[in-house]
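User: I'll paste a sequence; please echo it back and then give the predicted structure.

Assistant: Echoing your sequence first, then the prediction.
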Amino acid sequence: MSRPAAAVHRVIKAYDVRGLVGEEIDEAFVADVGGAFARLMRDEGATQVVIGHDMRASSPSLATAFGDGVAAQGLDVIRIGLASTDQLYFASGLLDCPGAMFTASHNPAAYNGIKLCRAGAKPVGKDTGLSAVSAEVIAGVPTHDGSPGTTTDRDVLADYGEFLRSLVSLAEMRPLKIAVDAGNGMAGHTAPAVFGAIPSITVEPLYFELDGTFPNHEANPLDPANLVDLQAYVVETGADIGLAFDGDADRCFVVDEKGHPVSPSAVTALVAARELGKEIGATVIHNLITSRAVPELVAERGGTPLRSRVGHSYIKALMADTGAIFGGEHSAHYYFRDFWGADSGMLAALHVLAALGEQQRPLSDLMADYERYESSGEINFTVADAERCVDDVLKAFGSRIHSIDHLDGVTVDLGDGSWFNLRMSNTEPLLRLNAEARTGEGVEEIVGQVAAQIAARSEAAM
């Protein structure tokens, strides 16, 4: 059946499908999405689709309905059941077929969604298939004249863990105690399969019970409030390191032995150095709001740094176009050529554990090698006129500006090791600020001046 365009576009977004269960997304809707996706993939030569889902109460039935839509179009369905998003990517690569992951990542329990990929975990976004899926769901998915596909179940969890461990040298590690906060998300399912087979590691689990209502805290470690429990738990257990995963366990955040968060930029630099040890001169991608320490360290280690816009679709496209060995983002997404160019927080965690375990220093000392600047983190301002706010900020900094670029929003280099980026949100009336300087005082000065100009503009508009 046909569907209202506005309702479809509200749920099928630029990079995935996401909405309120029962109001915006239900079994009938995802069956249509499955059918449209199957037709698109069938036209490209696919014969089967692999499907995984997270621990949300709505996920199993939605995944089943999607699979029914796929099978109705003549493609076979392989169900891997409970999975992290990077486990689904692994299955897509292993089986060389398109995939669908049912998850709303760190969104509240009332939401669910679908992350789609082509064979080999290649992304499907607005310009690479989602627009075609939307159009067909709106018009009504045609009935397939041939025989329906088959549906089979396959457990790939052990294979996933073994594959990740094969990519990182773990043999020379000293004994480590690691505290892992799964946030009641899918890391509670995957972490035992990955870490449990490493003799030198003892896991101290926190919130491993799968619960899509997220009873302890939001499964979004990017928010510092959601790291507080892990920070305390690391100190309480005497762990050497803490790892926090988001709801679908594709992002990983790190806490040192003192309970202090480690910047994802520092993790990016560390993993980049390790990957460059395999291939001197290789390209490493970083988004434009990671620390300047990342491209500096990549160049020092003989690599070629490549700057990208913020967002997984841009990073994955560059990974494919350039053959980059690794890519990292400020949001703790880490991309690996050895993992089909897709992101895996679990694989990044293994690299950090290996780097920590192959030497004797504590994590805080080790990571100091990769921290060169102070940063503000991402600060959001609610604004009525983002463009005029940006203009006011640029005028205020005036002659201090060394250079400006517009790759993603506006990035201002102040020429003394300090810089800031202002980006407009695509979906909300927000300006997002990221600033970096050699000292904390320098960061505070930049943030204060930007905030003052935005406040003055807001007052003038009242």
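The chain has three domains: 5-155, 156-372, 374-461. The chain is about 35% helix and 20% strand.
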